[in-house]
Specification:
The chain contains 3 helices and 59 strands. With about 725 residues, it is mainly β. Strand 40 and strand 41 (about 525-530) form a beta hairpin.
């Protein structure tokens, strides 16, 4: 398995890293608990497994027919167990190695949906203590071994993202759900104090962790007046022994509503000379949760909507000069910002200035209004990648998007690396080294992918109608920008406005190639992509409901578009497209949903249908052959791949060893087709077209790499000795 993602229809809710291993565990809706290996390093001492693997999985069910939502998770300080908070208020204990459920659990009581759990870093009364906050506003202290509730307190403030953070000796708990101090008295007479995050700056040297998105120590994360992007989660690296001083408790990361992951110094109050913050666009939609590895060298970020888990390496770079953005300062000076006696910030617009001037910059830029200590004037800051000592380098992506896309995985022709996409990332995976490189210029979910037939060029289109053509063999990590860059990358945008449905390279010559793009509204544009110029455009389908789902090319001037109840054959002639409608001739074919198509050569095209049949056409648009019986009966053919044909000539040949003359059959064309269907099968077919036009087909082999009966194959690519297949449950399989 090259990539193992998360099941469709749900979202990832929580992540926690092992206290002494390069592992993490994620929880999600549907009761899923998964354990992952995050040690990507090639010099890993543990050679028994490849880095980047799913190590174990568990589904917590309410009954045989329904599952629960796993809302939060935390490791015991010794790393032997996990505690998982459920949406029915219960806490369950799981073995951290095999993910086996413990029979003894913590009853739900009246706490409601569990929002956060946190183990004390040290033992109290000889046992670890679990702090748990529920949706009903109750914070409980639970003894781990006995699962007994030791004490409870009602919250004064209902926090949308409640935080629980212990100090290092376990005698005090900090939360953003209380304003005043409180004390828990245990049966033994021991006391555990609970304080508000307003005391965070005073206690930050003693805190074991920091997960609050509010408080004195993180007042620079976002503006109190709400003009900046909202912060959704935060995680400070733990105060620990034997950790370099520059990161020991001195680094905090936080995610926001626009998918950015940021790293900053802690405490991160900003002043005029030190900004100390860098941001990376990572996820499509809000960042759900973050977690540091035990040594602080890796960070795991999880997107709530894009079902994507990313591993980042935390690196230290020389500090460059820090500057405030003059442009943004001049824009934000159009506002009068005043801080009242109670600390409330009021923003009034300067006469003649439109408020939209600020919001036009989001999310492509992060705009923050920061009031530095001892200064009344509010300053505008644009965070760039060169401002902080600690930087994030994207290292590994554990997800693959297969649940709502087709044909989104492939093998590069020259390097034989696997390429696919998830969220807004293009991923180039070197299977032999188990390393990844990334294309990171998309700012929305990628919706389709096309590979050049002879070069390692990749075209990707997203739901914001942006198209990029990039060289997958020339991706490297830039020390200057601290980001992944491609030596060749061209953006095409403007003609299609409703999202990209499908792409293909066409008209390939020695001097270059063109790119055909189809939008979700059926509008097709052909680009001379190297020049960034439009060659021609046409509306392929105008009837409502007859959506265009796919475009394919022969590498020359012929294209095929297919979709709901139609298939059309196009010829690129100069700056125009000439169309021929598909006809069914003397066969038993009929109009239906044509999900995918592929050219065999310049004369023959194969298509996969919704009913599971394979249709073979000539370039005149006439259906000449149907594979129906024995194909993917009763299920869709989502993707199809063709091996170039070979020609057998009529005549005779002599076997010199046996001195026998053999008669070679009449001239025929042989080609092979690999189809992927909704029945979880990939089937290899042999087609042979005789001289008189008669075509025969033979099923050679079938394989079902899926392990779940509810899964199906939605993508397939076959290059020489390798095939890559993607499934609807977001798994990507490599088959030799």
């Amino acid at each position: 398995t090259v990539a193992c993602g998360f099941e469709a229809g749900g979202c990832i809710i929580a992540v926690a890293c092992h206290p002494n291993k390069f592992e993490c565990v994620t929880t999600s809706t549907g009761g899923s608990v998964r354990r992952w290996d995050i040690d990507w390093r090639e010099s890993s001492a543990d050679k028994s497994r490849a880095p980047g693997n799913l190590l174990a999985a568990l589904c917590i069910k309410k009954s045989a027919y329904s599952s629960l939502d796993c809302m939060c998770v935390d490791y015991t300080p010794d790393g032997l167990h996990l505690v998982v908070g459920l949406n029915d208020g219960r806490l369950v204990v799981v073995d951290s190695e095999r993910l086996n459920l413990d029979a003894k659990e913590v009853e739900s009581g009246s706490r409601g949906r569990v929002r956060r759990v946190k183990f004390s870093p040290t033992k109290t009364e000889g046992d670890f203590v679990i702090a748990v906050v529920g949706e009903s506003g109750i914070i409980d202290l639970v003894q781990f071994t006995t699962r007994r509730v030791l004490a409870s307190i009602n919250c004064e403030v209902f926090a949308a993202s409640p935080s629980l953070d212990w100090i290092q000796n376990g005698s005090m708990l900090m939360t953003n759900a209380l304003r005043a101090k409180a004390t828990w008295k245990l049966d033994s007479g021991a006391e555990i104090h609970i304080v508000s995050t307003d005391d965070g700056l005073r206690l930050e040297q003693h805190l074991h962790s920091w997960t609050s998105i509010a408080g004195d120590a993180v007042s620079g994360l976002h503006a109190e007046d709400g003009l900046a992007v909202g912060v959704t989660c935060a995680q400070r690296f733990l105060n620990q022994k034997d950790v370099p001083a520059e990161i020991n408790g001195r680094v905090i990361v936080f995610g926001d509503d626009y998918g950015k992951v940021s790293i900053a110094a802690f405490p991160c109050q900003l002043d005029e000379t030190s900004v100390g913050c860098s941001r990376k666009i990572a996820h499509e939609g809000p960042v759900a949760c973050l977690a540091f590895s035990y040594d602080g060298n890796f960070l795991v970020s999880v997107g709530g909507n894009d079902m994507c888990m990313l591993v980042w390496r935390v690196v230290t770079v020389p500090k460059d000069s820090t500057e405030f953005s003059n442009d943004l300062t001049s824009i934000l000076h159009k506002y009068n910002v005043r801080k009242g006696e109670a600390g409330a910030v009021s923003v009034t617009k300067t006469a003649g200035v439109e408020r939209g001037d600020v919001f036009d910059l989001v999310p492509d830029y992060y705009v923050g209004l920061v009031c530095p200590p001892r200064h009344e004037k509010t300053t505008a800051v644009e965070s760039t990648a060169s401002l902080s000592v600690e930087q994030l380098v994207l290292t590994h992506c554990y997800s693959y998007r297969g649940f709502d896309t087709r044909g989104n995985g492939g093998i590069l022709r020259q390097s034989r690396h696997v390429v696919y996409f998830t969220a807004g990332l293009g991923v180039v995976h070197n299977v032999e080294r188990n390393s990844q490189e990334f294309f990171t210029k998309h700012r929305a979910n990628i919706s389709c992918l096309a590979l050049h037939p002879t070069q390692d060029l990749v075209a990707t289109g997203d739901l914001h109608s942006s198209i990029w053509v990039w060289d997958a063999s020339d991706i490297s990590h830039s020390v200057d920008s601290m980001d992944w860059e491609s030596g060749t990358s061209v953006q095409l945008k403007g003609e299609i406005t409703c999202g990209i449905a499908s792409l293909c390279f066409c008209d390939i010559t020695a001097s270059g190639s063109k790119l055909a793009c189809v939008g979700l509204d059926g509008h097709m544009v052909v680009y001379a992509w190297k020049l960034g110029a439009k060659v021609t455009e046409v509306q392929t389908e105008v009837e409502n409901g007859r959506h265009v789902l796919d475009v394919s090319g022969d590498g020359r001037k012929q294209l095929v578009t297919s979709g709901v109840d139609h298939i059309k054959f196009w010829t690129l002639s100069g700056r125009s497209l000439v169309v021929t409608l598909g006809t069914y001739g003397q066969t038993a074919g009929r109009p239906q949903v044509f999900l995918c198509s592929q050219f065999v050569d310049t004369h023959t095209i194969v298509t996969g249908t919704q009913e599971g049949s394979i249709y073979v056409w000539n370039t005149l648009g006439v259906l000449i052959h149907i594979v129906k019986h024995g194909a993917h009966t009763g299920s869709e053919i989502f993707d199809i791949c063709v091996r170039p044909p070979s020609v057998r000539h009529a005549g005779s040949a002599k076997d010199h060893r046996n001195d026998v003359v053999a008669v070679v059959p009449e001239t025929s064309t042989v080609f092979y087709v690999l189809s992927a269907g909704g029945d979880c099968k990939a089937i290899l077919w042999k087609f042979e077209q005789k001289k008189g036009g008669v075509m025969l087909h033979t099923k050679l082999h079938e394989i079902s790499p899926c392990t779940s009966a509810t899964d199906c194959l939605r993508s397939v690519c076959w290059v020489q000795e390798k095939a890559v297949m993607g499934s609807a449950l977001n798994n990507l399989f490599l088959c030799p």
